[in-house]
Amino acid sequence: MNPILTRRQFTKAIGGLAAACAMPLAAKTRAATVAATDAQGNAAKRAFPRGFVWGTATAAYQVEGATGADGRGESIWDVYAHTPGKVVDGSNADVADDDYHRYPEDIALMHALGVGAYRFSVAWPRIFPDGAGRPDAKGVDYYKRLVDALHAAGIEPYCTLYHWDLPEALQRKGGWQNRDTAKAFADYAGYMAGQLDGRVSHFMTMNEISTFIGNGYGSTAMAPGLGLKGQALQQARHHALLGHGLAVQAIRTATNAKTRVGSAEGIDAPMPAFDAPEHVAAARKAAVEENAGYLTAMHTGRYTDLYLETLGAAAPKFTAEEMRIIGSKTDFQGLNIYTGNYYIAADNERGYEAVPFPASYPRMQSSWIQFAPDALYWGPKLMAEALGIGAIYITENGTSSTAAPDAEGRVLDIDRVMFLRQYLGELQRGIADGAPVRGYFLWSLLDNFEWSRGYSERFGITWVDFATQKRTPKLSSRFYRDVIARNAI
Q: Residues of the signal sequence (predicted)?
């Protein structure tokens, strides 16, 4: 290309510049007004609904520490983490973030963020050290102080009653393999919800049945690390579902009519490979069948025919009454979404086929988190459509990062900022297209004990120096604070 202008081109360019410079002031003002209006319109398109709930989340065993304080009983995770070789860095959660003692400091962090809600979990062994029997008053009082402090800071508490820390005393009796554990959980859930009635308006029965059964009972990757197969595994899963249903009923009995009850379940969000109608329909079918042992059963009160046929002799034994209890009506569904699976239409009995991730597909630090922002578009949308769910909260979303303090003490986790920006953008788009999402809880407020990964993976938007317990908000914390303040991306 010749960069030299001809005389004619030069004259035309100068004439255009002169015309622009001679534009009347009123015309310039009108042009500026149109540009500003367009910018406001574009911003409005990226805004979240008025009253959208912005929160952050933690789990008791991952942050509290103080495992021997005030009468707390032993949990299956205490036993597992102290077993050599179970946690990759040889660590445990005896201290973790010491949130049991430092929760006022962490509430101050949340207040500075501007969050309106905090999802936390109650440690079952703090309430019933042996899983059942006489409650421990010190444990109950701790959570009352916590929620009162949250209210004082203008933060609404959202309470999860079981986030994987089963009392070891119950595990010695079979844990979730024992049907009695479902009843013990319902008794605990009803009691604790009653104690917090009037202080907490949103309760979640359990967190990710699919994970604590699949990884704790179906493999050795998490506590209690049993590695069950076949019918024994499926019966444990069924008992956990039964515990959820019984707990829903117990919470309703123990609390006022305004209390909202749900659960938080982890899914690999169903996504069409691209949004051709046949692939969208395939992903919608996958939403039902790939969650048949969990969310589908909880929202329909039945196991699908295909699911039972696939299990064959490994299918759990159950009664019609148990399925009715499992299908107890809930008020909302929490979805923990980090990634998803892509589907295409297929000529098979399922009507869909999963598309495998090639080695070149981008991932975050945690190898199981494939970078899939559209999971927050399609996941809530298709789950709501397929199962008739009327209200959804994203109860977990986030990523680990290797970003560490630089010479100035800053943690510039731009990878997490990128992740959140893209995922939240897709969530907003999904809500604009009808997904009934009422709020979002970022995982997590703090770097913490990441289960069998120990302290090797940091999911927090706040850096924690575990030697000194010093908290340092990361770049992602500043990003999230800005999103909350604008209620928009």
A: 1-31
CA atoms of 70 and 118, how far apart (whole Å): 24
pTM: 0.92
> Which run of H or E residues covers position 204?
strand 202-207
Q: What is the CATH number of domain 49-486?
A: 3.20.20.80
Angle made by CA atoms 78, 367, 480, in degrees to the nearest 5: 85
CB atoms within 10 A of CB 14: 10
- pLDDT tens-place string over residues 317-350: 999 999 999 999 999 999 999 999 999 999 999 9
Instruction: Determine the Cα–Cα distance for residues 301 and 290; give it in Å rounded to an integer.
Output: 16
Q: Is 248 helix (H, G, I), strand (E, B) or coil?
A: helix
- Give the residues across from 488 on adjacent strands: 47
Contact 109, 102 (CB under 8 A): no
| pLDDT score recorded for residue 46 | 86
In this predicted structure, what is the pLDDT of residue 145?
A: 98
Residue 42's pLDDT is what? 58
CB within 8 A of 263, min separation 6: which ones? 204, 205, 206, 207, 209, 244, 298, 330, 333, 334
307/292 Cα distance (integer angstroms): 6
Q: What is the mean pLDDT of the chain?
A: 93
**Residue among 139, 254, 136 at smallest CA distance from 197:** 254
Q: Residues with catalytic annotation?
A: 208, 396
How far is residue 108's CA from residue 187's CA, in Å, rounded to a whole number? Answer: 33
Structure-token pair, residue 186: 């319902």
Range with the lowest mean pLDDT among 42-56, 367-381, 472-486? Answer: 42-56
Cβ count near 24 (within 10 Å): 8
Q: What is the pLDDT of residue 41?
A: 54
